Amino acid sequence: MKNTRALTVAGAALAASLLTLPGCAASGEAVSKPAGSAGAESKGEIAFFTPSSQIDVVAALADGVVEYFEGEGYTVTIQDANFDAVKQAQQIQQAIDTHSIVGAWIMPVAPETAAQSLATLQAAKIPAVVEGPPMSVGLEGPQPGIAFDEPDFLKYGTMIGDTAAKCAVDGEGREALFLMPPDAAGGTEQVIGAIEDSFAAGAPDVPIAATGEAADIASAQTTVSQLLIANPDANVIIAASDETALGAAGAFKAANKTPACIVAGGGGDAAVAALEAGDITSVVSWDYSSAVGEAGADLIRMISDPTSLGGIIETPVKATGGN
User: Is the separation of the CB atoms in 14 and 133 below 8 Å?
Assistant: First the structure.
């Protein structure tokens, strides 16, 4: 059950939009299943409400939540909404009506729906951790009974750009291609702007020769293959998602070329495997494993005092790999 690797979310109004990773479209009915058991002496049940268990990074976050709370003597259930905001609201309402939970951990499918659910949880004095900043659910600042696990997208984008710039300079990069998924992971203006600014500052002699969008690995490989024909000197890839990074790696292999570096903003299992295999140079990811402990401790504190203000906890970012 333990999962200590860094998790990446390429998501928040964020949480929902950025977590809707290309290639991770959910299918089937929403499910609710016990993730584990702390035995007869459980202190109570915590429900983890997820947009989809099919997203690697979200599933890994759920594993971290389960591990933490089972260690603290609670049981944990996973409530999979299958990207259905209404379904997630119904799941939360059912948990409230049946008095089955003492706390909730919510990754919203839709911020406006989640805001209504949060108000209902507050009225029922059931504390919650929300993945995303207060503004993502229409709130400002600390809230009674609610803790926020808040990603810093400027920091995330800057780390991707800085990592790619260092890689380009150290690896004798000539030109770069900037790849992103359409309207999804890593696709916020803040992230994209931070990537472009930090890369330009760190590698001023390595211009971004072209940009491309792709929703999955196959289309990313096609896109990069075409870009390599038009830009034969490009040997640096800045990829805002796992899928675009993996597609780029495939395109270089198909062209029998060796990239100076491929830097991915992501961190799913396939990207980590590609990093370990040497096909991707670096992965920048959200380190949810570090944030779970702090947010989890705050949730336990609020279970004892559900009207107290919850914390706003910044999700760390980390880079793995490098040339």
Answer: yes
